[in-house]
Known about the structure:
The complex is a heterodimer of chains A (276) and B (778).
Chain A: E1 2-13, E2 16-22, E3 25-27, E4 31-35, H1 42-49, E5 57-62, E6 65-66, H2 72-78, E7 80-82, H3 95-103, H4 110-116, H5 123-135, H6 151-164, E8 169-173, H7 181-196, E9 200-204, H8 208-214, E10 217-222, E11 225-230, H9 232-237, H10 239-246, H11 250-257, H12 261-265
Parallel strand pairs in A: 4-9, 4-10, 7-8, 8-9
Antiparallel strand pairs in A: 1-2, 1-3, 1-5, 5-6, 10-11
Chain B: H1 2-10, H2 12-32, H3 39-56, E1 58-60, E2 77-79, H4 87-110, H5 118-140, E3 155-156, E4 166-167, H6 168-190, H7 192-202, H8 204-209, H9 214-236, H10 245-249, H11 251-261, H12 267-287, H13 301-317, H14 341-358, H15 367-391, H16 399-414, H17 438-457, H18 465-484, H19 487-490, E5 498-499, E6 503-505, E7 508-510, H20 522-544, H21 546-556, H22 558-563, H23 568-594, E8 596-597, H24 604-617, H25 622-631, H26 636-644, H27 654-668, H28 673-690, H29 693-717, H30 729-749, H31 765-769
Antiparallel strand pairs in B: 1-2, 3-4, 5-8, 6-7
Bound molecules: adenosine-5'-triphosphate and magnesium ion (MG).
Adenosine-5'-triphosphate (ATP) binds next to β2 and α1 of chain A.
GO molecular function, one term (chain B): branched-chain amino acid transmembrane transporter activity
Keywords (chain B): Amino-acid transport, Cell membrane, Membrane, Transmembrane, Transmembrane helix, Transport
Region (Disordered) (chain B): 752-778
Amino acid sequence: MALLKTYDMTVRYGGLAANADVSIEVPAGKLVGLIGPNGAGKTTFIDAITGFTAISSGRVEFDGKDLAGMTPDRRAHLGLVRTFQSLELFEDLTVRENLLVASERPTWWSFLLDLVRPPRTSPALEARVTGALEALGLEGIADRLPMDLSHGQRKLVGVARALAAAPKLLLLDEPAAGLDTVESQLLGQHMRGFLDGGTTIFLIDHDMGLVLNVCDYIYVLDFGRIIAEGTAAEIRKDPAVIQAYLGQSAGEMQAQAGESVAARVSGTETGGATHG
Amino acid sequence: MSDIIFFLLAGLGLGSLYAMLGAGLVIVYRGSGVINFAQGAFAMYGVFTFDEARRNGYLRLPWFDFLPTHTVNVPVSIKLSDEGVSTPVAFVLAIAMAVLIGLMAHFLVFRPLRSAAPLGKVIGSLGVMLYLQGVAQLNFGGTGRQPEAITPDGVFQNFLGLDKAYPQGAFWAVVLAVVIGAVLWLLFQFTRFGLATRAASSNEKGAVLLGYSPQLLAALNWVIASVLATLAAIIVGPIGGSLTPIGLSALVVASLGAALIGRLTSIPITMAGGLLLGAVQSLLGFWASKDWFPTILSSGARDVVPLVAIGLVLFLRGKKLPLRGTVEEKRLPLAPYPVRIKQHMIVWSVIVIVAAFLFEDAGPRSVFALALVTSLIATILMLSSVVITGYIGQISLAQLSLAGVAAFIMARMMADGAKLTPDGAVIPFPVSGPGLPWPIAALIGILVAVIVGVIVGLPAVRIRGVQLAVVTIAFAISLQTLYFENSKATGLTAGAPANVKPASFFGIDLKSIGDRGLKDRPEFMIFVLVVLLGAIALVANLRRNGTGRRFLAVRANERAAAAAGINVSRTKLLAFGIAAGIAGIGGVMLGFNQNDVSSAGFVYQASLAYLAFAYLGGITSVNGAIVGGLLAPAGLITVTGAYFFADAEIENYTAILGGLGMIITAIQNPNGIAPTLQPLFQHFGRWLRAARGPEWAAAGKRLGPTFVVGAVLGYLVWPLRVETYSQFWMPLLGGFLALMARGIYKQARAGGHGAPPGAHGAPPVAATTSTPAPAEVG
Ligand SMILES: Nc1ncnc2c1ncn2[C@@H]1O[C@H](COP(=O)(O)OP(=O)(O)OP(=O)(O)O)[C@@H](O)[C@H]1O
Ligand SMILES: [Mg+2]
């Protein structure tokens, strides 16, 4: 069953259609990827799904519910949880507190209890947070502040925070940007781990190696439109995709994914995608 | 009909003042991203300089003599002639003063603050305002002045056939405003300087490309704004009647209304908005005297209109207003996780309870009892700023007004129209009311404060940063004029205080005034202490629990907070409600302390001062609120200072020192005082626990010489200025000051601040394991 489905979703910024008639489907339990050149509209897509930007036309359905008019926090409560491309951690809270914030589900009277009783968190909550920390190997830095962490660690904390919210669908916006190859591979393994834990994942990344390696199904976006979709093997061969990536200037390409993109896209990289 | 037209036209005089001040606000905002709350104070200093030179022949410089001697002094005024200089000379002097003040504001305050958080800039400009007010009170006196107008002071009879006399001053004011508006427009639209300024306001690199230094541009814009303010006040000011430092500084509020109408970017729209505000105010003033006008609004409508305009404009435009801060928004200081709350509470309780009994019936030293109570209550009020500004990052300048709401409602709820208290004392202004017992009356007061607080918070859903600050000032002024000062709403004769019945607890009287008429009753101080400890527990628990985490998440990043499932709007309103509740508790205690409530205690300027002192103490922590409370006006530190320096008349300098403190804190130490002191205290505490005889001896050896030197200096220097108490207290104080200076010096040399103090969990391990050398103490 499709967990997330969009129907001809269009997002306009003024005259620019950052997403044009995008229809995609994310089946439960799968890892679906979205790739595309700079400015293709990938972040816009996540923004639209999670309620951070308004949809001009079309429809989004999550878990069988139409999301129209729903605020971002409601969507998060439904299990639609995202990360941000730029680092958007809560700088004043420790790593553990960052995760706690995302995992707590307060009631309207929680604040009354919070005012009068000393600090307390439920064991279930602790378990969830600890689980998310362990899933990304962050136990050692749980009591540090984000500003004391390396860029790679901060990225992982962002993912862990989303995971702590017990998402049904985890939307990751370029989680591997700025990570080195080893870190990036490790992240790929972690993601397969989340899948085994029952979380569906939607992954945006420029790291072709990562996307092609771990994703079950891939969509390719260019100038706001879906130009191709399929398994990693199909995407590697797709002429439109090669065109979209090779059509860019060399400088841009290097900036986004390193020199080996073309090579990877055209299939020289042999690491086969894992099909689930 | 002709009346309406006439009164609209009549208001243009004052409107042109708003227009010109508003234009200055826009210019400064575009030039350096600061909303200059001191704009009215600039105008004030300028027009007083003008009047003082023309009337008495003195040029009063914008600083004060801070040297503690009679023999060596800082020049603070220049005598120009015996009986006043000619108008043109005075005019030139005033403009020169405006240039000087503009340059000082830029180079000494706002340039250092250029990359500070919006709150830091707000505090900086409030500091400048307070400083200029304080200096003006010293230099020109706090009483009203009526400068002679330099425009013709006749009237146009039967103006425009409207059958009324129109003052010529107002006419010339409008002409001036229009001319200045045109000149400014030409300047910014068609000169290279204007182009560069506009380029710089969107992107600093733009100005650099045009060959200008952004800082030079900012300085020039400050000068233009300051000169504009002075010019406006000299020409238009006199038509408004008598001028006072405080009254003129308050002009900034209506001017902000005008500036916000112009979206803080357009000078012509701002000036048109200013003229319109003046006109509408004048018309409302006229209508307020009519029978059909709602009587409850008749006294306040005039002042509230500009504020309604501000709020509405901002709210309707939502987040579309150009706000530089959003681009490079800097963060507030960390809000540390509070540790060892109980231990701190016990220590403080013991100190306060000892003090409560020590100062009972202590003759002249009873002033300390009152000061301590004042500080404790101020701490409660500042805790509300800790929640709303420290935890969730919303700048509210209305917290004291919310306290006022609670106090007034409580007074009314416990009133019963009786003319005598149970002990037979006369109640000067009896008000009818339901006569509820004190706990219920207080609770109702606090609840109403919470409701009003949530309403004050509504704009925060769509407005952020300094603009929210402006809107909260608008609320503060509205509450003041429409409620506290409105005899129709309070049932009091104008300006009279409402009686507050003392509280009691199972037969124990909790009156603040004892038999001797002095406010030194230990029972009351303990009552205040208990309430304060309760408030501290609330605020500390909040920070350590989920609600506080959500507040900090919203403060850090609203988008990420929403993504984490936090309803940002509701969380902000919740914070406003909680903060208002705490402010309400403080307000109720203020009422009990004074035995009455009056509008004078809750003027919006006092609200500004409270936020400023909370910032000074450290806005993000309970400890900061405690330090802020000690520093508060009429609090322990001021009173102690006034007691020891009886002849220095320190109370004349509180505004100046407060303003300077705010500026210096905003620049040098945005974390506030508490986080800086905390490591020192921790260190000292550990040393005390570990110290035995030999350690004490070693400490004496190390610190003794410093203390003696300080004591000798205290003995030699201070008596030159301070005659009383010097024989004993001054050397002692000098000794301690020397120790403090030594400690600060050592700490600075030892490598600055290190880790943020008290952050997260256990104290630094290294410090606990090694026995600290006594040299680092104190
Ligand atoms: N708030 C906005 N207003 C106007 N245009 C926008 C806005 N947000 C994004 N855009 C434009 O929409 C297009 C798509 O942007 P988006 O950030 O979604 O691309 P992206 O695929 O995530 O790119 P990148 O790989 O750089 O992250 C871009 O041309 C961008 O300039
Ligand atoms: Mg993107």
